[in-house]
Amino acid sequence: MVRKLTVWCFVPFGLNLEKGEYMTTKLLVLVFAGALAVAGQTTQGSGKPDFSGTWDLKSGETDIRSLVIQQDADKITIHDGLDATKTKVECGTRGKQCKGVVGGEPSQVTFYYNGPVLVEISQHGKDNEKATEIHRKLSEDGNTMLVEITPIAPAGQDKTTLEYSRKAETTAKAATQP
């Protein structure tokens, strides 16, 4: 039994079983348990950043001067801080498409994380003729949010980079959240 298990596990790694180079089941279990522990630490340490708060435009050109973001475990709500009817999206962060309003137009939006970056793909307009990809990333201290907006359609538009600052009262709330 041990030899069959060893052959099954180590033949792909190119060990020469003819010369007796194999591990016992006990050692094999320890090796795999250690690998799982390391993998578990890696995923636990890569928590999602907290974008919750009120954000004011610091630099860049856009109509949205203020953003309000509310974030739960797997859900995010983003709306224009001055006019929530102009832009409001509520969606999960696992890649499922949701309906919302972007720039006063109906939209279909998808959010997901790419490491510490929150990615938004938005199709909007009367017939979904406009599409953008938006990357949001927090600074190390969590008080600055960089937003890169890449137009997908219509073609020929330039990428825009915006910088938002978290309002002081929301910085204290974000710092106390786990």
Stretches where pLDDT falls below 50 for ≥5 residues?
Answer: 1-17, 19-46
Q: State the oligomer.
A: single chain
Number of helices: 3
Round the mean pLDDT to the nearest integer and report it. Answer: 78
Q: What sequence of helices (H) and strands (E) makes up the elements? A: HHEEEEEEEEEEH
- Rg from C-alpha positions? 24 Å
Large-scale geometry = globular
Biggest β-sheet strands, sense, barrel: 10 strands, antiparallel, barrel
**Percent strand:** 35-45%
CATH architecture type of the largest domain: Beta Barrel
Write the layout of secondary structure elements.
Blueprint: H1 2-10, H2 25-44, E1 53-59, E2 66-71, E3 75-80, E4 88-92, E5 94-102, E6 105-114, E7 117-124, E8 130-138, E9 144-153, E10 160-166, H3 168-176
Antiparallel strand pairs: 1-2, 1-10, 2-3, 3-4, 4-5, 5-6, 6-7, 7-8, 8-9, 9-10
Mind explaining what this structure looks like?
With 178 residues, this protein is of the alpha+beta class. It has two domains: 43 residues; 124 residues, Lipocalin. The protein is built from three helices and ten strands. Strands 1-2-3-4-5-6-7-8-9-10 form a ten-stranded antiparallel barrel. A hairpin with a 2-residue loop joins strand 5 and strand 6. It is globular. The chain starts with a helix and ends with a helix.
